[in-house]
Amino acid sequence: MAMRTCNISARSVFLFNIITVLVLVTYLVDLERKIASTKDGSQHDLSLPSMKDNGALLPSSLSSKNLTLFYNRVPKTGSTSFVGLAYDLCSKNKFKVLHVNVSKNAHTMSLPDQLRFARNLSHWDLKQPLFYHGHVAFLDFTKFGSFPPLFINLIRQPLDRMVSYYYFLRYGDDFRPHLIRRKQGNKMSFDDCVKDGQAECDPNNLWLQVPFFCGHHADCWTPGSIWAFEQAKSNLVKNYLLVGVTEQMEEFVAVLEATLPNLFKGALKLYRRGSKSHLRKTNMKIPPKSETIARFKNSTVWQLENEFYEFALRQFEYVKSRTLKPDMSGKEQQFFYEKIRPK
Questions:
Q1: Of residues 160, 186, 184, 170, the one with CA closest to residue 76
Q2: CA 82, 135, 303: angle at the middle one, nearest 5?
Q3: Residue 171: its pLDDT value, please?
Q4: Measured in Å, how far apart are the chain's first and last C-alpha atoms?
Q5: What is the pLDDT of residue 25?
Q6: CATH number of the domain residue 265 falls in
Q7: Do the domain assignments include residue 36?
Q8: Is the bond preceding 342 in cis, omega lying within 30 degrees of 0?
Q9: What tens digit of pLDDT does each residue of 81-98 get?
Q10: Cα–Cα distance for residue pair 74/258, rounded to 1 Å
Q11: Chain-centroid distance, C-alpha 175
């Protein structure tokens, strides 16, 4: 009986040891797999920067390959001219340009489309960097659990933008001169349109640049909304890499080339040639009279849109002063690391 008990105990110990070894081997194999996966991921996404002699970190050569830029372009701000530069540079600088075309020229998407677009843009893994552009209001990618792109944009003095669009619908431009526009044949001036109280010239129609930066919330598109105005300013500061102004597009291009040379190397030289600096120019445009301007300046919508423009202009002037030399070339790196311990 004692011998039988002893045999059972020995067998139990042996089985326990076998199970322990199997568990340990499984754990080690799983650990090794995780380490290998981490190494692979770091090779693709987290490549460490190298150190320069002065202690400044050099950017990873791989990091630019994962760059996604989104230009949610405001209509009639010179966006066609700027995008033309991107299309001319994409082959040489090895990045892809994609136009986001929203049905019926809508500036907002349905909730399912917002989710699909955010997931698609964040997970489209191509070897080249990506440059998206389209007339789409700001979209908060983090709302959908997606990694956001770098946003850029251009805005324009609001009344100038509206007047340009008014005459564009009647006379077209030199980009596609033979295309018949929606208001072609209607020769009423902008001043007469305002004087007659036509809906097309209502000051509320200025409400476009604020909602474009505000986003997809319903209140963003309520003309004169203070909440939308504050949200637009917050998004500009927190979520945009750079916002320029149409009146200083050359400087905007120069800042981008200095900041993102992998994409925009050669952009300033290309812009200065003249072939891309005025790619789309309205065929005829009559400046509004002083009384027309005064009427707009009395509206809340103009005041908020103009204040937003001035806010963006101040920020761009500041960024430009910290980024460019007088000759429009980029400044040398202005920071470095030191006192690194242990050596």
A1: 160
A2: 90
A3: 79
A4: 69
A5: 52
A6: 3.40.50.300
A7: no
A8: yes
A9: 999 999 999 999 999 999
A10: 23
A11: 25
Exposed/middle/buried for 154, CB within 10 Å: 0-12, 13-18, 19+?
buried
Is the pTM value of this prediction over 0.90?
Answer: no
Picking from 90, 95, 46, 99, the residue whose alpha carbon sits closest to that of residue 67 is 95
| Placement of tokens 């530069």 in the chain | 85
Number of domains into which the chain is organized: 1
Q: What is the model's pLDDT at position 29?
A: 53
Question: The domain containing residue 278 runs over which residues?
Answer: 66-323
Percent of the chain surpassing pLDDT 70:
73
Catalytic residue of the set 44, 133, 216, 217: 133
Residue 15 falls within a domain, yes or no? no
Q: Is residue 336 part of a domain?
A: no
Query: How high is the pLDDT of residue 9?
Result: 61
The dihedral region occupied by 176, where left means phi > 0, alpha psi between -120 and 50, and beta the remainder, is beta
The phi, psi pair for 196, rounded to 5°, reads -85, -5
Name the residue among 126, 136, 56 with its Cα closest to residue 97: 126
- Active-site residue, from 107, 135, 178, 217: 135
The answer to whether residue 133 is catalytic is yes
Residue indicated by tokens 């600096």: 277
**Cα–Cα distance measured from residue 271 to residue 274, given in angstroms and rounded to the nearest whole number:** 6
43 has a pLDDT exceeding 50: no
Residue 48 has pLDDT above 50, yes or no: no
Paired strand residues for 99: 133
CA distance 304 to 57: 42
pLDDT score for 15: 60
pLDDT in tens, 293-318: 999 999 999 999 999 999 999 999 99
Strand arrangement of the beta sheet that strand 130-133 belongs to? 96-99, 130-133, 68-71, 150-155, 240-245
5 inside domain: no
Report the C-alpha dihedral over residues 34, 36, 41, 46, rounded to 10 degrees: 100
Q: Which two tokens stand for residue 55?
A: 């202690």
Report the distance separating Cα 215 and Cα 120, nearest Å. Answer: 19
* Start-end of H helices in the chain: 2-44, 79-93, 111-123, 158-171, 190-195, 209-214, 226-239, 249-259, 261-264, 267-272, 290-297, 300-323
Residue 281 or residue 314, greater confidence: 314
